[in-house]
Design goal:
178 residues, 2 strands, two-stranded antiparallel sheet, 2 domains, flat, mainly alpha, 5 helices
Amino acid sequence: MGKKIYDDEKLKSEALELRRQGLTYREIAKKLGCSIYKVHELISKHESPRSRLKQAIELADKLDELASKINTLETQISKLQSSLSNVKMLEDLTSDVLKLKEDMELIRLSAKRRLRDDSDGCKWVDIGGYCTFWYWSKEIEGWKMRPEMKEGKTVYRLNVKKHPLICTACPSYMPRGY
């Protein structure tokens, strides 16, 4: 029997989507009709610690952007309400904003559940709420970070208590006491 030839780009996008839905490598391989090794080859580099941290930062940025848009919409609604009354479009817009707020709250609650924030917390988080495991070579604008010296260079530690979504992608999570 000859070796199967796959369209890796198409297969990769399907595999990544199935992985985002929570399927295991074995389940993905079964659905796509390929080997577990092929699934690993296609998507493992997208699940590296750096990739997961980047995805968490992007998610946090998107949530911040959504919050900003919601605030802008609320301001616009307030202005419209003061100048217009009993307009169907205004009611629909208000309803849409309320739905957005509910959706965002569900995302936040879901993220908090995924933080693995048990009663003891992660052993890498210091008393000030800063992660002592990961550091950045430069400060990220808009994020609560503190500088410190490491091997003669200034590095920046992220306050994960202020930005807990970053913990959702941390492969180095370790409960206190281990």
